[in-house]
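ingest -> validate -> predict -> emit
validate: passed (alphabet ok, no gaps, 174 aa)
predict: started
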Amino acid sequence: MSWVTYGLCIIVVLLIFLVIYQYLIQRAALRIGEILYVMTGNVRAKAAEVRRDGKDVEIIEAHLFDIATSARSILRALGRSEESLGPDPSLTVSTNGSSRMSADSLLRLADNIFFSVSEEQPDADFEDVQNAALERFLKKVPNMEAEAARKIVNVVAHQTRKDSRQPSFAQARA
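emit:
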């Protein structure tokens, strides 16, 4: 065999690897698209439920927060570094332009986290859901003292529990 034949064999092997790599990348992109499609379908369904039942918008915010968190997780799983993703939007968004989160933002974040934990664990004990929400909240706001975070999550948890006990407007009319 000549050098030309060896060169052509090497080029063919490299092209085969390139085609396999392209196929795997295409499959990953399709899978990410499917995941995002399912997530947006869930948000659309919740939006219709909110519109129909007259519920608060926090449900939609919680689902959008979950989508943003999932998208970050997918990008990290695909090899993106935390520095290339930039700061977490849930921590950098503030209403007053400062780098610290406002009290409303902290309450909304705690409410979103509590809601997502209670959705993930519908049969869990109230205390277990509250503790899991506190752990997630402390991960999202690591510079906050544990006792202050516990107070915020407790307020949100007890408000959610109180709201779930009260009959809704539709139930009161029936």
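The radius of gyration is 23 Å.
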